[in-house]
Fold each of these.
Amino acid sequence: MMHSNQPILKKLKQVSFFLFCFLVFSRLYATDCPRTSSFCIGEKLYSDGVTYQGEFRYGKPHGKGRMEWPDGSIYKGSFEHGKKHGFGIFTFPDGDKYEGKWEDDYRTGEGNYKWSCGHQYKGDFLKDQMEGNGQMVFANGSAYTGEWVAGLTHGLGEFVRMDSSIFIGISKYGQRHGPGSIQFKSGDKIAGKWQKDKLKGEVTFNFANGDRVVSNWKKGTLQETLSYERENGEVIAGDFEYIQEKLLDLEGMFPDQLYQNIKLTAYGFAMEFRATENYDLAMQYLNLAKDEYQLGGEVSKMIALQEDIIKMEEAESLYARKNN
């Protein structure tokens, strides 16, 4: 008789075990985790339409989870006491995406932000702003690596431009401000000081062959008289076109290094006028930089690209002014 009851007892034990598992899981996974539970896995729909699935602690998201907003924004990652905290990935409705550290609901710490338009920033964040050290790579291929404050370049940094020239210097709240230099692939270099993104005072264009051009600037405006100082001590002073004519006379029928130096100078000036949105002067100096003798070289490769960029930026600037 006792032998015949053993299968029944065994069955009751199995049922009890499954019932126990069900009750435990029911406590852990719930549609609305109670505030009294120190740990719970569940989901919740908030009054503003936000949904959450994941771990709870005392009724708040705490641990790993997924939160989605009515506008399509999605966060997957760590929570602490109801806030995004730790590592997480946030996808915005427009396609932007942040992957990195969070603190008290803010992007804070190391992170990687990708814009849907192709820009990408890797580096430090503080309360949703780029702050600290980081690198921004733009969709057009240019890039800035250095210090940031409140989402703006601020401090020492290096900016690689579309033409592969490199600005190294100090920025202040998004503008070049202080000593700096621009170096070209050829080894030629501009050295000077900027104030609120505009050249100020004496600026030298040092060429790889030892020659240099000395110019003076006032609030981003080029003063008329320049001097071309050759390595052998000879100095030619005057406006740009006068110096260009004298250098052509020196090189005769076969313009070469001196000619290319003055053309690169015009190109450098054009880029400074473009930076201050003086597009008329920028185009004027790009035209002066053009190589009538088809010598090739770095300048010839860069001018057509810059002309297109200036035209585009000028059109965008006019549109912005009309709509403000």
Amino acid sequence: MDKVRRFLPAVIVLTLAVLADGFQPAAASINPEPGLQETAAPAIQTGMARGQVLNSSNPEVSVDGLEVTLHAFNNEGQVLTLSAAADGSGAFAFMDIKLDPELVFLVSAAYDGVRYSSLPARAGTGETELFFQLIVYESTENTSSLSISRMHIAFDFLEEDAIRIGELWVLHNASDRTVNPANGLAVTLPDGFTGLEVDPAIEPAITVTAAGFIIDQAFLPGEDAGSLMFSYSLPYQRSLQLSRSFPLPLLGGTLMLPANRLSLHGSQITDGETISVAQTGVQTYIFPALQAGETLDLQITGAPPGTALLLPSSRESMTGGVVLLLLSAGFFWFSRKTRSDRDQQAARTGSYQDTIHQLAVLDEQFSKQALPPDEYRQQRIGVKSQAKKLYEEKHDQG
């Protein structure tokens, strides 16, 4: 079975929001005011969608006959799929396509056991051709090229006798091949963990075990090979001795907990600074690189607060709301602290996918009344502006 890259529907819907400034279903017809003329909707052009399949691992390998699928989405989901075969040069084409400017298109293909997708694109008014570059890779089961480039761990309380721990892993694949482990990647959690919850985007790839879970997912080459976000609970009686070990080399990361509420100790950590997340003070700590299997040893002490301030209590909020906001804040803060001055601007702006995640977080926060309307609107305008700029830059480069 193909291991499909996750997040696709959410990215498409939010891409529509970025490019079209929101996308609403067609409204009922309304009679215009006297003296005003109705503006006719622009005609939908019939054109073609074509592109090129590129094998980035080995350009000499033929992709002749590879089935390429064209997808079209509106804000409610997928509305079109068509298939065509690539020729010996990797070229493919879909003819006589209605290039509705209100749809987002992309192409995908399954190659060597992994499904790959292009960047999304949308036809401009009057445009009659779309071009896609679809990059595929050879696959390997060898995980030696994988590492955790950044990790962020947040602590909070949902009840007095348990501590909630949220973790975000950003993976790096240093090879030129997609890593597709035959038996998945096993993640070990501390003894006594309960209430494991994972990001719904990766949930179909997760198998829970007595020791933690296994993720059955392929990891693409590059610095953003994939990410894992999950949370779990541990018993807590005013203190916790925590030892965490990881299946891959870890290049460092941050720890986050409510400021002035708890104490965190460990010989491997150094104090960071207090940052504000969703109007809450959060104390950060930095931990160093660790080898695969090496432990991060921590001691947490202090009386738990009466209510959770960082991690929400419901499953829906945990996977898409405050914990992502918190962990993302740690991600950008850690990036600014550890990258050179030359790279700091890139750390602030992030990638197009980062901005899509930020939009999802803001919308989730606002829907749960966790963000004031004025602050929500101001932040969303800024994030959407950055997302649109990054999308246009990628589209121009493609």
